[in-house]
Each structure stands twice: as structure tokens, then as C-alpha cells.
Amino acid sequence: MSRIVSRIGRRIVVADERGIAQAVEVLRRGGIIGLPTETVYGLAADATNDAAVRRVFAVKGRPTSHPLIVHVADASQLDTIAVDVSDTCRVLTAHAWPGPLTVIVPANNTVSRAVTGGRDTVAVRVPAHPAALAIIAQLGKPVAAPSANRFGQVSPTTARHVADDLGADIELVVDGGECEVGVESTIVDCTTPQPEILRPGAITAEDIAALLDPHGVTLASEPTGESRAPGMLARHYAPAARLHLVEVGAPLPHASAAVLDCSHDLALVARTLYASLRDLDRRGVHDVNVLLPPPRGLGHAIRDRLHKAASPR
Ligand code: TXA
Ligand code: MG
């Protein structure tokens, strides 16, 4: 193991009372940390500290125009950063928070444009992870956090992934265990009368349509399996191995021995997807046939991430 890994290894703290207090102290001083959530680990900074937010962009290697998600401790905190939150948005957050749903809402003027990439809208969610909620609540401020991986790389679902990826560039990683969901939150644009899914996730299009239906509201369009949140590139969540995507029942496109079956047990597939992609690289696999899940429910999110991971360099 490299020296960098062993050094950061000492900075992985357990998500107990002491670890949480340490994390809050680091954030209060303007530091950045690996934060466990139920989706993937975040690279977190005090959202009101522009210098800390700029460091998040620098460490990730992410363009500053590509906005971050702001994490809050409960739904009431939404009104401290947003204006004109629609009734439709409230229906969604009342159902899904804490949980893997991010809403895009109009930002008030207290929200730093460093966080929003210069936009007047802000992405907000309440994560369903006790350590994340405790840290945000004790800090008493919203926390800006993209996924804790280098730009374009596979998202981390364990504290070890974060330590391996970001090495000595961050102060601390809070180990809150393996992420339960495993893929990033569903992003819904709530700034237009008809809400629109920008990125599919574990809160599915079917879930959202069912919640909106009693209110006479429909989604703007059927999810296409293409993420359309700003700054999202075609190639993302990408391992070094070449992924050959195949629908169930179709002939295997590549005569390689490796097969990654993502076609059933979708909650388990989502939870282990990024660890599986990392594992392919660790084993030096060059080509892998990937069996796709059907395009419904959680299958949309898994297909979306696999299409991005398979996209040509
Ligand atoms: O599950 C998640 O959402 C994880 C955990 C850490 O919460 N976070 C995450 O963040 O996936 P990130 O930065 O990797 O993805 C955030 C996405 C970006 O693709 C960005 O384009 C979109 O959210 N986004 C942020 N602010 C936005 C805005 N104002 N309008 C539209 N999209 C926005
Ligand atoms: Mg990301």
C-alpha cells in the first residue's frame, strides 16, 4: 500500500459521536471531508464558505461551472436557501426526504454562486444517513457536496474508496459503512410547472408520477436514460475496463470471459455497481460484457450509469 493511502488511512474516522464532532470541527474551520450518505460518499464543505467550496472543485478537478448539491438536515432548511418553492416540489420532498431525491429550486440571494456554478437555481437534498444528518445539524449550516471521486471517475460507496481516490487532499473521511443505495440521487427540476427528471435514481419515475398524479401534475417527459443535468458529460462514472452493454437475450457482443450481470436483483446491483466497476480495474480486466436491466424502475438509473461508463473515451 502506498504511503499516501496509509496516511489518509489514519484519517478515516468511525461515524460515532467523536468522529462526527471531529468532522464538524474540520468543516467549521473551512476544511473538506468525505461524508457518508445513503447514495454515494460526498466530498463535503460548508456551503457558506466560498474558499472551502472552491477547494472541493479543485480537489475533484471539476469545472467551476458544474454546480454542487446542497445537503440540508431537514425539509424546513429548504426555505433558508430557496424561494418560490412550488407545491409540486413540496409533495415530492414530503414523500422522499430524507432520501435519494435532489430537487432543483430557485436560489435565494444567500446561496453562494460558487456552489451553483453561477446559476440562480440550487440543487438541494436531505440525505438518509444518520451520520450525514448529525454532521449537518451540528454544523448548523448547509453542506455542499458532489460525489467524492475525481471528475469523471467512478463514484465511491465506501470510506476506503474515498481514501483511495482523494488520498491526502482532504482532511478526513467519516466511515459510515457501505452506501445502501449505491447510485446517486434522482435529480428533479422543480423550477418549471411540469417537473422534469434530469438524472434517474432510486426514487423512480414511476414513484414520482404516482405522487404527482393525485395533484393533476405529470412529468415533463419520459426518462430517456440520458442524464441532462448541466455539466454532465457523456462519459462519466468510468472505469478503465471497456464495457460492452447487452440487452438480456441478445448475443454477447464480445468473446471475453468476463460478464457483469446487472439484469436482476436491481437494488443489489445498484448497491454494488460502483464497487464492481472498481473491482474490474483492480483485476486488470480489459473487456466485460454487461447484461443490462430492463428500462423500468431502478433499471433506468443503472442503465444510465452503465451507458455513461461505457461511452467511448
Ligand atoms: O446522491 C447524490 O446526489 C450525491 C450525494 C453525495 O449526495 N451527490 C452527487 O453530486 O451525485 P454530483 O456533484 O456528483 O452531481 C450533482 C449533479 C450535477 O450533475 C449537477 O449538474 C446537478 O447535480 N446540479 C447541481 N446543481 C444544479 C442546478 N442548479 N441545476 C441543474 N442541475 C444541477
Ligand atoms: Mg458525481
How would you sum up this structure, described in words?
By secondary structure, the protein is α/β, with parallel strands linked by helices. It folds into two domains: 4-175, DHBP synthase (Alpha-Beta Complex), CATH 3.90.870.10; 242-309, no CATH class. The chain is built from nine helices and 13 strands. The chain has helices spanning 3-9, 17-28, 50-60, 87-96, 130-139, 159-166, 205-212, 266-282, 299-310, and strands spanning 12-14, 33-35, 42-46, 69-71, 101-106, 121-125, 143-144, 172-175, 186-189, 196-199, 242-246, 259-261, 287-291. The strands form two sheets. It has a ten-stranded mixed sheet, sandwiched between helices. A hairpin with a 6-residue loop joins β2 and β3. α2 crosses α5. The longest helix has 17 residues, at 266-282. The radius of gyration is 19 Å and the shape is globular. Mean pLDDT is 92; it is low at 1-6. It binds threonylcarbamoyladenylate and magnesium ion (MG).
